[in-house]
Amino acid sequence: MKLATGWHSERLGERVGVARWGNYGTPVLLFPTAGGDAEEIERMHVVGSLKGLIEGGRIKVYSCDSVAGRTWLEEKGSQRHRAWIQNQFHEFVARELVPAIRADCKSDSIEVIAAGASIGAFNAVAVTCRYPELFKAALGLSGTYDLTRFLDNGDLPTDFYYSSPLHFLHGLHGPQLDRLRTRQIVLVSGQGRAENIGESWRMAKVLGDAGVPNHVVPWGEEWNHDWPTWRKMFPLYLDELTA
Q1: Quick one: the chain helix, strand, coil %, rounded to 5?
Q2: pLDDT at 41
Q3: SS3 for 138?
Q4: At 192, phi and psi to the nearest 5?
Q5: For 22-146, where are the E strands, in sequence order?
Q6: Which superfamily does 2-241 belong to?
Q7: Regions of the chain with pLDDT less than 50
Q8: Are 53 and 131 in contact, with CB atoms under 8 Å apart?
Q9: Are the CB atoms for 99 and 54 separated by under 8 Å?
């Protein structure tokens, strides 16, 4: 059921690991958290929580190394370099990973659901907004959508601007925005330890101002920013998005 692979990405200048679970169903690209790799979601038992959907042929789950997230966390290079890596990571997803997913699904037009928790949620929402011709929906759990916390001097590099939907959505127009308005974005967040549901509401406001269908689902104070919460959320909302 599991396939682990990867390749050297010229866009990122390094090898990126990729993993897949399942053989049939809607492709779901599930981004890891900031420091995670392609197999993080298996170690943290998210794949196990999705067993029913995977074995039932509802979804095929893909994941990849969090190249950009590690760059932010480890403060590699200058801020402009980190922003460039973030932008290149999204380009890797769109120009390398999605074509590989489509080839694996034996379809050159199949659309992907993007999903993730924490910074994984940021990437899921960002790639859906940037490439709505490739992604039909995004599921963001406990999202960390404002990455300006990683910029310490108020500088907003161009690569950062075009990677961050909180910023670039204000200026989006034309066919890309028209296509994005046919997509669905679901933002779910607990309100317990280390959660900040305000980020989801802020993201929803920017999406709503752009006319992009979305909704925020608040969970209670007993749901923390942690894997047990996400293991409950992922199967519930991926079931809804693939119904």
Answers
A1: 45, 20, 35
A2: 98
A3: strand
A4: -95, -150
A5: 26-31, 59-64, 112-117, 135-141
A6: Alpha/Beta hydrolase fold, catalytic domain (3.40.50.1820)
A7: none
A8: no
A9: no
Tokens of 162: 């075009």
| Interatomic CA distance for residues 173 and 180, integer angstroms | 10
Q: Write out pLDDT tens, residues 187-209.
A: 999 999 999 999 999 999 999 99
Q: Give residue limits of the domains in the chain.
A: 2-241
- Count of Cβ atoms closer than 10 Å to residue 84 Cβ: 19
Determine the Cα–Cα distance for residues 225 and 142; give it in Å rounded to an integer: 6
Quote the CA–CA distance of 53 and 48 in Å, as a whole number: 10
Q: What's the pLDDT score for residue 111?
A: 97
Question: What contacts 193, CB < 8 A, 6 or more positions away?
Answer: 224, 225, 226
Please tell me what DSSP assigns to residue 148.
Answer: G
Predicted pLDDT at 130? 98
Side chain identity at residue 191, one-letter code: Q
In one letter, which amino acid is 16?
V
Cα(225)–Cα(207) distance, integer angstroms:
23
Q: Which two tokens stand for residue 217?
A: 């689902």
